[in-house]
Design goal:
One of its GO terms (biological process) is translation. This protein has helices at about 10-20, 35-45, 50-60, 65-85, 135-140, 145-155, 165-170, and strands spanning about 25-30, 90-110, 115-130. By secondary structure, the protein is an alpha+beta fold.
Length: about 180
């Protein structure tokens, strides 16, 4: 009994289809600002489109906007160069800030004493997702009931990692949600 093997072209086509659902990311490490100040800006742009995010960041008066702007620009460049996505179709699906190490310096004071100066750093991660792949998904969604539509769209647009096989079957209409 022989095992049917797919050609490499078929495998590559399936992988490229699955990679559309995964995000493209950019990571900025050891950015010299507190994580709290960076989160204030990140909370404003999470879930927005790429172009809208760039406009918001250019107009916000915070110092944290510039490194975040550079990271989003870099993630979009990764998406267009590495995966061939259109920048107009990108959306920020995940953006988070983690606390980094704290740089410590001693400042000399009077009478031979010294004060500790703490300079916090943070790590910022931006994940972009291509929304053009969801158009085919939305075309086939009319076959479902209203309750099933909500569940399918929530699964497609969720930030959590979802099983690519299930999504592929939902797109083709071979599987229904119960």
């Amino acid at each position: 009994m022989g095992i049917l093997k797919k050609s490499t072209q078929e495998e590559n086509d399936e992988l490229s289809q699955l990679n559309k659902f995964r995000g493209v990311y950019a990571l900025g490490q050891y950015i010299p600002m507190s994580a709290h100040k960076a989160r204030r800006v990140i909370d404003q742009i999470r879930g927005r489109s790429y172009e809208e995010t760039l406009m918001i960041l250019e107009l916000m008066p915070y110092r944290a906007c510039y490194p975040i702007f550079k990271l989003i620009y870099s993630a979009a460049a990764n998406a267009s160069h590495n995966k061939g996505f259109n920048k107009a179709d990108l959306m920020i699906c995940r953006a988070f800030v983690d606390k980094g190490t704290t740089m410590k310096k001693l400042k000399p004071r009077a009478r031979g004493r010294s004060y500790l100066i703490k300079k916090p750093t943070c790590h910022i991660t931006i994940v972009l997702r291509d929304t053009s792949c969801l158009e085919e998904f939305r075309k086939n969604i009319d076959a479902y009931s209203k309750k099933e539509r909500r569940q399918v769209l929530a699964a497609a647009n969720s930030v959590r990692k979802f099983d690519e096989l299930v999504v592929r079957l939902l797109i083709k209409g071979e599987m229904k949600l119960y």
